[in-house]
Amino acid sequence: MSHVFFATELEGVATFWRIHRKDGVTLGFTSHDRDLVFGGVRHRAAPGLLPSAIRRTAGLDGDSAEMQGALAHDSISSADLAQGRFDGARVEVGAVDWETLQHAVLYNGSIGEVAQEGAGFTAELRSAKAALEADPIPRTSPTCRAEFCGPDCGLSAARFTHRGVVVSSDSDEGVVSFDHPDPAAVLHGTVRWLDGPDAGLTADIVALDAAGIVIDAALDPPPSAGVRAILREGCDHTIATCADRFGNAANFRGEPFLPGNDLLSRYPSPA
C-alpha cells in the first residue's frame, strides 16, 4: 500500500536523493538530521548538499532541476568530479517518512553538466525527457554509426574483451603499456581500470605509441606496474575493417559508397 504524504497536519517528511554512478558506486543522502537506511541504501545526513525545486510539466521539454553542494562533504570530492566519476550518473529524488521509512521517488534523471565554483559545485539534473531531444532519424555517413559490439553491430563483446596488467606508464604523454600481445587490436577501444586510483573508470584508447597505448584521460596519479584493467578491442567504423577483420559487413550501419558533397561541385568542362 502506497504512503500518502502530508495527509495530516503534522508529519515527519524529509527529502532523499540517490546517486548511482557508472562505476557501480551508489550514494544516498537525506535532508534529515540523521542517517536513514531504507531500500538497501544508507542515506547520509547531508547538510552540505541541497537539491533545488523540481519543475514537473506535461510537455516534452525537460524537467529542470539541479543539485548544489560543498566539496567538503567526504562523499563527493573535487578529485572525483574532475575524474568524471559523477558524469552521467543516474539520480533519484524523493520523499521519505523518517519514522516509518516509507518513501516515494518523485524524480528520475541523470547528472549532466557539473561545474566547480570555489569550495562548492553545481550539478545539472536531466530528466528522462532529455532523451526526446535526440534526433531519432539516422544521418547518412560513410562510416558505421553502430556502437561496436552494440545491438546494431551484433558482435559479442566477450570475444573482444581481455584482461591486462600494466607494465609501465607515462603520465606526461598519457601512455600506458600493458602485457597485451597486440596493442593495435585495442586501438579505438576502451580500458576500464580494476585497481589503482582510477578503479571503476573507463577511458578511450585514442592512439598507439612505441611505448604502448595512448588514452584520453589524465593519468594523475599514473597507474603503477601490476594494476589490472579490462581492455576492449575497438573498431574504426570503416567498411574495410568491418568486412575484413570482423566479417560483419552484413551489419554495417553506414553508406560507404554514397557520393559525398564534393559531387555537387563537379561540372562538365569542354574538352
UniProtKB/TrEMBL annotation:
<dbReference type="InterPro" id="IPR018964">
    <property type="entry name" value="Phage_phiJL001_Gp84_C"/>
</dbReference>
<dbReference type="InterPro" id="IPR011928">
    <property type="entry name" value="Phage_phiJL001_Gp84"/>
</dbReference>
<feature type="domain" description="Bacteriophage phiJL001 Gp84 C-terminal">
    <location>
        <begin position="188"/>
        <end position="262"/>
    </location>
</feature>
<dbReference type="Pfam" id="PF09931">
    <property type="entry name" value="Phage_phiJL001_Gp84_N"/>
</dbReference>
<protein>
    <recommendedName>
        <fullName>Bacteriophage phiJL001 Gp84 C-terminal domain-containing protein</fullName>
    </recommendedName>
</protein>
<dbReference type="Pfam" id="PF09356">
    <property type="entry name" value="Phage_BR0599"/>
</dbReference>
